[in-house]
């Protein structure tokens, strides 16, 4: 399929990211009017949907697990930029922006994306199957990252208030990059077959890798089309994060006016940033490609920690004020339970709707205690 035919068939996915970027530029310095804010909100939704389409085009071209990796890294880079902009604005809650947003991203991916993917996939296909070895290694890496960056700071004594000293923060940054790099090497080079969609029998037992030539999908797009979609994906993602930045004062004002904890802002931002991956994961689950959905979920959680913390650590050289990374006791309980449930869901290599419901209930519990601690 040529680029011309792509524009003809998916014209809105070409127009929307460009319009969203144009609206961003036009309203960057003047966006206080309600009508403009509604337009920004509509453009934000459109950019999210366009990002999903272009990410799937690129993923179809490069294949798994590279497609999931591209989307996870791209979204996380944008998320880091948004966190840094929010922190640079100062305020009493600036020290916890990174922690609240990263933890919200972990809970949304662990329980939201995983739970919805398992529920939707199993509802349609009775049972869903995946490679427990690959998914389990991804989960183990995320748990190690979360422990080093979000749990340990609450128990160290060299710095008070859930913070790391400069030396400790430097170690956490290096460890995060090392873990993330080791996983990417394993996922894309050493054991790539562990992260490919699998075929299964009627009992959900894995019988081998999915035959990509007989899965009922179109042939991979041409290189020119894939590059075109990659460019539009970047435009859409940039539009998403900066439009969300324009909406953030309104979100913050709404949170304060409703009497909600300031950490809810991080939850809302995480939901906005992770929307493209969530939609893509559900679409893959509907196509009985839950392995891809899990790649997206745990890959996003991993990238959210493994790329965000090192970047924030470097940024703290120039930024003033403390950086609180340590989770509160309630957050640690939710993280621990989520890890245990994830282990039990992954270990069999297959899942039904019950596992999806359990994960979604944990996400609901996270939202409840975020709104009312």
From TrEMBL:
Cellular localisation: Membrane
Keyword Transferase: no
GO-annotated molecular function: potassium:proton antiporter activity; sodium:proton antiporter activity
UniProt entry keywords in alphabetical sequence: Membrane, Transmembrane, Transmembrane helix
Transmembrane segments annotated in the record for this chain: 12-29, 35-54, 66-89, 101-120, 132-152, 164-185, 227-248, 254-275, 296-318, 330-347, 354-371
Topological category with respect to the lipid bilayer: Multi-pass membrane protein
A single GO cellular-component term on record: plasma membrane
Domain called Sodium/calcium exchanger membrane region: residue spans: 36-188, 229-371
InterPro entries, sorted: Alkaline_pH_Ca-Antiporter, NaCa_Exmemb
Name of the protein in question: Ionic transporter y4hA
